[in-house]
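step 3/5: co-fold with iron/sulfur cluster
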Amino acid sequence: MADRMLQFVRLSQAQPEKRGVGERRKDFGEIYREFEPAAAAQQASRCSQCGVPFCQVHCPLSNNIPDWLKLTAEGRLEEAYEVASATNTFPEICGRICPQDRLCEGNCVIEKGFESVTIGAVEKYIADTAWERGWVTAPRAKAELRQSVGIIGAGPAGLAAAERLRSRGYQVHVYDRHDRAGGLMIYGIPNFKLEKEVVVRRWRSFEQGGIRFHLNCAIGRDVTLPELRERHDAVFIATGVYKARDIGGEGAGLEGIVPALDYLIASNRDNLGDTVPEFASGALNAAGKRVVVLGGGDTAMDCVRTAVRQGAASVTCMYRRDKANMPGSMREVANAEEEGVEFMWLAAPEGFEGADGHVSGVRAVRMHLGLPDATGRQQVVPIKGSGFTQGCDLAIKALGFDPEDLPAMFGEKALTVTRWGTVKVDHRTMMTDLPGVFAGGDIVRGASLVVWAIRDGRDAAERIDAYLKEQAAPAAVAAE
Ligand code: FAD
Ligand code: SF4
Ligand code: SF4
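step 4/5: write tokens
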């Protein structure tokens, strides 16, 4: 191993090449190019094969990173894919969109004094190669079981659970109110981070494996939760969080002030070739406009970068804290800066100005960072008399998401939620207060990450399997 691995002392870190700013500002294609095979092997060989791999400890899926790095360095890519896909349902997606700087790569030990191994890009390379060479197979049921599971939500949590359960032979039905599977991976996250074909090919492979999709089917509108429980032996709720946090203040009802997800869904649909009247009319299209995005998280970064690509006249991101305190991934902030987005730190919106019923500016106040609060985070304090107006034709609100009122939506008052509105589960079993009804992903954690949703989906599949086995064999258990 010694001559092939531990190359970090000799080789510098290199991420796959990024497309030039001038080129990528004009289209929605992914911005990172694929590694050349030699570069992937070289980068993988920088790993020092730690006895206690902190990269793995800080990967929500406990991916066996050192092993697949070593196999990649040795050119044994099919085996590398086998290892990578044993713990991750979507390695090609996590490799693209995990905030690696906060997870695996941020905890790689050679970060100290050297630069971390490029784990995410190698994971993407392994999985993309597997797709290209036909090594990816549809979920295969060893034997067909009679019991069925209904999954509400075709996002990463629902799909990860579906794949695991189908592989064990259950009859799996996935319900989603949208017309495509993928959840926020299809309609939230833009193409320049995750091209939609990458999601669609997994969805197609799941269909080939016998998972049945019921799209355009909203639970609560088309089918109630009690009806779904009648149909299936177990139910998994993975509906995500969609209630956008709002901003009030004077002028909040003016035209041209839009929620981030409406804006991103319209753009993603347009890129998918759908007819989107609000995009065509200009209501959800930044072309030629002065755009202000309110917020500093990943959703805000996706909005500013979408607006650049739509040909906005100017794009400003207004955030009440400073750059060091931004919740969004630093890599995405750097990409936005390169693409010409202007950041207005330490500024908070207070209301809007308008002309003829349409927004013409965001009224804001400058902030400064005060003393830390109980959580240790510095508080933001408005600076007296510092009010100003930032002119705009489109204001996009990207202030975060809360859960919808699920008990009311599902017509099931007995479904217990926490005081934040997330679904309450027993964390050992992942079961809600309703027997046989499980939950996971954002609807349990609050707005989180794709990789955590996958983890929840896989864990829920284990718990559901254990529950169904127990249900199927009460006599055998009693006889023991
Ligand atoms: P979702 O992906 O939200 O899927 C839930 C599904 O349930 C949806 O398809 C929805 O239509 C369906 N549904 C809801 N209610 C019903 C109902 N009543 N009946 C039927 N179906 C229903 N994470 C990252 O790791 N990296 C990123 O770069 C990143 N970027 C993001 C960008 C944006 C703009 C947003 C909004 C989020 C981003 N995230 C990112 C977060 C990530 O997308 C979520 O954490 C993840 O998708 C949650 O998965 P989920 O399966 O719990 O829910
Ligand atoms: Fe890193 Fe995410 Fe892959 Fe885990 S799943 S190894 S955190 S990129
Ligand atoms: Fe390799 Fe870094 Fe993980 Fe250690 S922490 S096993 S060097 S990737």
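step 5/5: annotate
The chain has three domains: 7-132, 148-241+403-479, 248-400.
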